[in-house]
Amino acid sequence: ENIFGTLPPLMAFKPQIGHTLGATAALETALLLSALKQGGSNDYQGRKICFSECAASQKGGFFCLANQFGFGMAMATVNPNIHITAAVRFDTDAGTGGKILKQTLKQQSGIDTRRLSRLSLIAALGAGQLKEQCEICPDCAVFLGTPFSSPSVFEKMADNVLNHHAAMPFDFIANLHNAPVFHAARALGTHGATLVVTADNNVDTCFHPLSLAMQSLQNGGQAAVGWAYEHQAVRADTYEGSIWMLLEAGTEQGVPVVLNDEGTQTDRPSEKPQYYWQNIADWLEVVMAHEGRD
User: Fold this and answer.
1) Is 251 exposed, middle or buried (0-12, 13-18, 19+ CB in 10 A)?
2) 84 in Cβ contact with 245 (< 8 Å)
3) Which residues contact 9 (CB under 8 A, 6 or more apart)?
4) What is the pLDDT along the chain (294 residues), one digit of tens a residue?
5) What residues contact 161, with CB distance under 8 A and at least 6 apart?
6) Among residues 224, 227, 259, which one has the least CA distance to residue 245?
7) Under a CB-based contact definition with an 8 Å cutoff, are residues 282 and 276 in contact?
8) What is d(CA 59, CA 28) in angstroms, rounded to the nearest whole number?
9) Model pTM?
10) How close are the terminal C-alpha atoms of the chain, in Å?
11) In the Cβ-directed half-sphere of 211, how many Cα atoms lie within 13 Å?
């Protein structure tokens, strides 16, 4: 009631179908489509619902939000009003020196790069490429997923403290866990809300930044969602870089976002060079391909 004021009609199909071992989403979607075609149904208390009497939207018709849950195997979030309107991928490797990355970012965005960590450079360079593809609103929110702070910075600080007895507090302050998203926001030219989400390339967690961004978007709003990775010695076979996409709510342009287990699972081995965020890259490639975009 705090959210809606007057509660909208609420239907529940679960009592009609019982346990389905993962088929809940498909069955409930079919039942909902049938109810929409008939123009009405019953709410969870058995009262008749006439869809023609539901509050209409300004564009005509009415909005219907459907959530399906099936033992955690068939969960889906569908919001037809959120679209991916631009997407980019910035790739580099451990052999590319930090000086080159700083010079590139300086030329691209005019940012003072003197104290930026490698992870911040990777995040900001990808974000800068996104800005070149589309118009970013001044209040665009920025969400960034990353395993943790820049490994190279902390290795260097640990070496200075343990082996040379020299502390570097300013480098530590400049490279806190959330620093990369601040630099990415600056590259995008936005002063909107920012959030770093601790995530790894496990399919169960790598989509968390995208899910949080989708839940926070207001109609007409924007959110830049990114994933950044700096090479780590323990993962010598993975490439570094960042992936960015722009989400917009209330637009008919771009590619609609659908997150579900079928779309986000990547059981097949990739034929491409192994990338830390390969799950995200493969999913995005499939999504954009459905719309004939690359």
Assistant:
1) middle
2) yes
3) 43, 49, 54
4) 666 677 777 888 777 776 665 567 677 778 888 888 888 888 777 788 887 666 555 555 666 777 766 544 444 454 558 999 999 999 988 888 889 999 999 999 999 998 888 889 999 999 999 999 999 999 999 999 988 666 666 666 777 778 877 777 766 665 566 889 999 999 999 999 999 888 888 877 888 899 889 888 888 899 999 999 988 766 666 778 999 999 999 888 888 887 665 545 554 455 555 778 888 888 888 887 765 555
5) 167, 168
6) 224
7) no
8) 26
9) 0.66
10) 43
11) 14
| Structure-token match 């959530």, residue found | 67
Residue 291 CA: distances (Å) to CA of 49, 76, 257, 283: 36, 20, 12, 13
Q: In the numeric block, which tokens belong to residue 48?
A: 């008749």
